[in-house]
Amino acid sequence: MRHAMSIEPTPTSIPRASDQETTPSSPCLEIRDLWKSYGDFTALRDISLDIGKGEFVCFLGPSGCGKTTLLRAIAGLDLQTRGVIRQDGRDISVLPASKRDYGIVFQSYALFPNLTIEQNIAFGLENTGRSKADVAARVAELLETVGLSAQAKKYPAHLSGGQQQRIALARAIAISPGLLLLDEPLSALDAKVRVHLRHEIKSLQRKLGVTTIMVTHDQEEALAMADRIVVMNHGVIEQVGSPTEIYRHPKTLFVADFIGETNQFQAKVLPDGQVEIGNSAFCCPTDGFAVGDPTTAVVRPVDIIPHGADAHAVHSLDRPATPQNLIDAEVHEMEFLGMFWRTRLTAPRLGDRPLVADFSVNAVRRLRIETGGVIQVEIPRERLLLYPRGI
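The structure assignment produced for this chain is given below.
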């Protein structure tokens, strides 16, 4: 049996594949035209995807989007209704789980409570025909890899949640699987432990070079860990791309709204690269839209630039042209979130919709931004994105 017996942020600078590389050159896993139905309900609809050797890929989406169903189909735990899955060129579409080459870790860890930590890790190895000496050496190596050599004789109940998760990972990779599957492995842990463990998991994955698929509903987790993110919704793939592509260039309104925070405004396309929001014209890319098209305009709070209360005057002295999309706004509310201030603004040019902006602590201090004050803010032209209204 090749699969392991464990079946049952602020984005960081963890090294990963280039953000410019969005398609694998050497697929480890190929999924083609995959569907999964339960009676009249279609959980997965026409899924096609390639995953490259050594990649770390996150399936990301809200509850019920199909991400865990897709992972279970890959694992052979819940066979697809139709479609093809190939691993390293081998058709595994209808193979039972025991005949597939993967290790898997679920949220519950599923460690055997009556076995010590070293016995838990050794469990899958003992069925591979290795000698006791080889098994012991491999267990010792894995314990050192996950930094838990001193815990070898302890039982799972004596370990913290983070330590149990590391043991579950060690057990999953013990038989050197071709594929590592992680189903929300960090969701049962507190926030600080999650941040620490995602670094450890990513570092371990890079060290081993094992192709890894992780299911998560946590956007920050996916942005921090993945080489590529597969965003899913209602059983279909909305977008596949690097974290930078997904965040900065969302292809659909769902992706823009699900990944990070957004301000959304009803808009109408005007001539000359402009849209009408409220009663005012704003510059933005309008490629793909015709004049008069109703759209939804989106800008992220983090992309809004504060200029203080006299940006027009300052910029007219410093350079001939003032920033595009510069508007007057009143600071209605401020919420301190540690690394930045989340600020709610009201702006006559935007009509009756509030504008949420995230300002750095330094910007708030430098510009003396405070509740009740009036400032000017810039909505950068290239960061004001348009989507068909209602889609």
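Interim note for the steering committee: The mean pLDDT is 89. The domain at 27-255 is CATH 3.40.50.300 (Rossmann fold).
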